[in-house]
Protein: DUF397 domain-containing protein
Amino acid sequence: MRWTKSSYSSTGATCVQVRAPRAGLTEIGDTKNPDGPSLTVPNDDWDHFLDQVAMGGTDFGRLHPEFLPGGGFALTDTNRPGAPVLTYTQAEWDAFKLGVEAGELRSGNPRGTLVKA
Structure:
């Protein structure tokens, strides 16, 4: 089960990473911390979040991004009390957003760039 990140994240750069741990679920992690915490949500919730990102919407559903001063964002799962908070830089947000707009990180079979193990 390999992680995938946006192809807009340059080689060696860090980014949001996703994978499908089992049918119907998407796991979200951070390439800066490959063995660190992750969020796992139903595909429908992930795809809803991606739709909002792509459209510039604000009804993110269960995944809640908090946009940080100076750029970047923190992401958590509001349906899971005590869920970890994943924090990304402005450059990671920019690459992620471009990948989302290109349709790369959809649930089920995300495409983009495989993250080196």
About this structure: The two ends are 11 Å apart (CA to CA). Residues 4-102 form one domain. The first helix runs from residue 43 to 55.
